[in-house]
Amino acid sequence: MFIIASARDRDYEDAKDAADNAARTLTELARLLSPTSPLFSEMHQLRSIIHAAQRSLARQQQPQDLEKGLDLVTTIEECLTSKPK
What highest taxon heads this organism's lineage (predicted)? Predict the structure, then answer.
């Protein structure tokens, strides 16, 4: 969310820092995630969106698809916090 808010305010430096931190975190999480995990696809999509945002922000341009990224974060969080049936 901080990436989106900062980018909308045209604070590209803060948004880029947040995107860099998110990319590092996602890279670490991806190492822990099995390719057979139900979250693998969502995590891969989210990493792609964050990497594209890093490139856009480095050029001081508005990143694309951050709303989709936020939806993916919500989906991943719901999967991680849902109780088994």
Answer: Bacteria
Q: What is the pLDDT along the chain (85 residues), one digit of tens a residue?
A: 778 877 778 888 888 999 999 999 999 988 888 889 889 999 999 999 999 999 999 999 989 998 899 999 999 999 888 866 5
Q: How many angstroms separate the CA atoms of 15 and 62, rounded?
A: 10
Domain count, the chain: 1
Instruction: Tally the residues of the chain.
Output: 85
pTM of this prediction exceeds 0.85: no
